[in-house]
Write a structure and sequence with these properties.
mainly alpha, two-stranded parallel ribbon, 7 helices, globular
Length: 168
């Protein structure tokens, strides 16, 4: 398996994006919201590291992904399909993913979403819930903290990109 993301870029982006991905998953579990600071920090990571690790034309195209995903996310949020924080995080994560890896990332996200959903629902009905009894994600039984799968999907993708990314 060879991914379109340059291995060098993924290697440099991962250590900075990983804590933000964890923060997003944790805060969405705890508060059912994804912080604007986390989203902006993810964009700053890409803007600070991307120009030095990606070919400049690729860097420019990747930034366009942010705009397109943000616009689509705004429409989906207005239709009530997903939360505003989810849409903003997806937009902030979009520049990290080259278009050639889109199918792979969708499959990775689907698997991650299924695993996160089942784990969350089982934990909510188990004694594990007592570890964090005031988390909003337990109280809102019909809602799911999408950050629990969005954050890890980006982190896993970057880790795989560091291992199996392109070398050219």
């Amino acid at each position: 398996m060879i991914l379109d993301i340059p291995a060098l870029a993924a290697t440099w982006l991962l250590p900075f994006a990983l804590p933000l991905c964890i923060w997003v998953a944790w805060s969405d579990l705890r508060e059912m919201r994804i912080s604007n600071r986390a989203v902006l920090a993810l964009v700053v990571v890409f803007l600070a590291i991307g120009p030095f690790t990606l070919p400049l034309p690729m860097f420019g195209w990747q930034l366009l992904h942010l705009v397109v995903v943000l616009l689509v996310g705004m429409v989906l949020n207005a239709l009530g399909v997903l939360g505003a924080g989810d849409a903003k995080f997806a937009a902030a994560a979009a520049p990290f993913i080259p278009l050639g890896d889109l199918h792979f990332v969708i499959a990775l996200f689907a698997a991650n979403l299924l695993a996160a959903f089942v784990t969350h629902r089982l934990a909510a009905r188990s004694p594990l819930r007592r570890l964090a009894p005031h988390w909003q994600s337990w109280a809102r039984s019909k809602e799911f903290p999408m950050g629990l799968s969005l954050g890890p999907t980006l982190a896993i993708y970057l880790a795989l990109g560091a291992l199996y990314g392109s070398t050219s």
